[in-house]
Amino acid sequence: MYIKYLDNIHNLDNFLSIVKGQLEVTTSHKDNCIYLVKQQNHFSMAFLTEDARNFILAKIWDDMKAGVEFLDIDEILPTFYDAEKYKI
Question: What is the DSSP letter of 21?
């Protein structure tokens, strides 16, 4: 599966795992990232909210199970943030 994030395309087959950032950096800031982990390093996808991170992670998982070949996160995020903003 390929994902597009911030105009970069990543082949998930090139990564060992996908990890949800969970560490609390400070009392008021959480790690709202998804990490695509390789052998020696990782690629970080940062989101504005924990809900956005969880939504995108669930979307990646659902699309992988469904056999979707390409997911454009750049296209999904503005709609998600608008829905969150207006509490839709």
Answer: -
Enclosing domain of residue 24: 2-85
- The string of DSSP codes covering 36-82 is EE-SS-EEEEE-SSHHHHHHHHHHHHHHHHHT--EEEHHHHHHHHHH
Over the stretch 17-47, which tens digit does the pLDDT of each residue have? 999 987 665 555 678 999 999 988 999 999 9
The total of other beta-carbon atoms located within 10 Å of residue 5's CB is 20
DSSP code of residue 31: -
The amino acid sitting at 50 is E
* H-helix or E-strand spanning residue 85: helix 73-85
Token readout for 75 is 């296209």
DSSP state of 22: -
Number of domains in the chain: 1
Q: Which amino acid is at 44?
A: S
